Amino acid sequence: MVSFVDEVVLHLRAGHGGDGCVSVRREKFKPLAGPDGGNGGDGGDIVLVADPQTTTLLGYHRRPHRTSPNGQPGQGDNRAGSTGELVELPVPVGTVVKDPDGTELVDLSVPGMRFVVGPGGQGGLGNAALSTTKRKAPGFALLGTLGFEGDVVLELKTMADVAFVGYPSAGKSSLIAAMSAAKPKIADYPFTTLHPNLGVVQAGDARFTVADVPGLIEGASEGKGLGLEFLRHVERCSALLHVIDCATLEPGRDPLSDFEVIRAELAAYPVPEGQVPLLERPQLVALNKIDVPEGRELAEFVRPEFEAQGMQVFEISTVSHEGLRELGYALGAIVEQERREAAVEDEKPRIVLRPKAVDESDFVVKVEGGTYGPVYRVVGGKPERWVMQTDFANDEAVGFLADRLARLGVEDALVRAGAVAGSTVVIGVGQGVVFDWEPTLTSTAELVTAPRGTDARLDENRRASRAERRAEYYERMDAKAEARAELQREREAGLWTEDPAADDTTASEGQE
């Protein structure tokens, strides 16, 4: 049965944005009173929150699939669609969020810290929001964009001030149980501890947390035993306490060799960039099990050897609690010193907000080789989002997309890249949306029956005035008079006669 999980993969699907609405207001005596389509609602975000009350990722191990609601589509009468609800996922303080490739996205090391891990889709605009003085009644609306859909990795690194390290069965769990109110599993066989245990120690005015890491053995940094899986929990600790078994009966082991093996494994473990290496942090040595006569004798014998290496050594017993008080005060002094130095230095990088450069482009054009010639791929946030929002079954919407791309400068960039009429253009990564490019990007707009910016449904049937009707009548009369005069001129010129019989006699005589 799984009782502790420190790394899980979340499968997320954020809410999609709702589509905008195409609608025309209808009132009495005004059957077509203008556009009134509402906007679609945004999809719900998925947010990770560093919660001090959450101590494990077990809930996400059992339910790794998390979704947020979609935004609702807009409606007529300028009614916007509802926005999808925000979904908050509490995680333990110290959780590191990574993408599937291992790139770190954020370190939730501060209580209350929030991170939008799955942004929801953007709602589309209705035709009421798209209307302008030149486009008074758009016959289209924008579609909602898709929300984030993918995987993220959550990795828990225990937030403790002091880490207890040592061989299996060295007494680390017994020590944390004796110094705090924690109740870890304790047994007389190796690898009893299968997950880090946390405890809170009060030593005078100092209050700090301690963690016992599952037993390390030789080769732990290379994956042997349980060490590699849990060494990450040592990264955030300010100090290390080497718990050494002075009453072991295993052949070939003694306190000094155990100490050197553990130090070698700690030195081989790579810490993230910017953190202090494990062996450069404050270290203390606790010679455990001095309640056993042989253990006390061995501890007194090896103590000078550790002190010669500059180590602060304590002889302790988790059974009789001998030496625990002095050990607690020494650990508390180190933790308080580390906290003071951290408050002064404040190594966290300062967040700098920089505006976008004036000459920074919103897209790039990449030329790729294809079977039937070069393919010009347009990659950028705006073009990809605009394509996603376009309803390609609506000619006017396609023309609107063409105008937006032209204003953004995509057409000029394609010309500079060497594209010609009929070239294959792909917008977006992967398969994207494929076009046969025309240099002017206006051919799709010509398919619209009404001029751009107008709608034939809203044309006014205006009645002609009396003067306009009189002018039109005079033009018709003048045209008829001119036609009669032209016929008379042709008759006088002998181009044709009015007697059909005469024409037939003349034709027969000509044949004889």
From TrEMBL:
PANTHER family named among the record's database cross-references: DEVELOPMENTALLY REGULATED GTP-BINDING PROTEIN-RELATED (PTHR11702), MITOCHONDRIAL RIBOSOME-ASSOCIATED GTPASE 2 (PTHR11702:SF31)
Family: Belongs to the TRAFAC class OBG-HflX-like GTPase superfamily. OBG GTPase family.
Pfam families, A to Z: DUF1967 (PF09269), GTP1_OBG (PF01018), MMR_HSR1 (PF01926)
Protein's organism: Agromyces seonyuensis
Cofactor names: Mg(2+)
Keywords, alphabetical: Cytoplasm, GTP-binding, Hydrolase, Magnesium, Metal-binding, Nucleotide-binding
Region (Disordered): 60-84, 479-512
Subcellular location: Cytoplasm
Purpose: An essential GTPase which binds GTP, GDP and possibly (p)ppGpp with moderate affinity, with high nucleotide exchange rates and a fairly low GTP hydrolysis rate. Plays a role in control of the cell cycle, stress response, ribosome biogenesis and in those bacteria that undergo differentiation, in morphogenesis control.
Descriptive protein name: GTPase Obg
Start and end residues of each OCT domain: 355-439
A molecular-function term among this protein's GO annotations: GTP binding
Lineage: Bacteria, Bacillati, Actinomycetota, Actinomycetes, Micrococcales
Example of a GO biological process term: ribosome biogenesis
Compositionally biased region (Basic and acidic residues): 479-493
Gene3D superfamilies reported for this sequence: GTP-binding protein OBG, C-terminal domain (3.30.300.350), GTP1/OBG domain (2.70.210.12), P-loop containing nucleotide triphosphate hydrolases (3.40.50.300)
Stored InterPro entries: G_OBG, GTP-bd, GTP-bd_Obg/CgtA, GTP-bd_prot_GTP1/OBG_C_sf, GTP1-OBG_CS, GTP1_OBG_dom, GTP1_OBG_dom_sf, OBG_GTPase
Domain of life: Bacteria
Keyword Hydrolase included in the entry's annotation: yes
GO cellular component, one term: cytoplasm
EC number: 3.6.5.-
OBG-type G domain residues: 160-336
Domain Obg, chain residue ranges per copy: 2-159
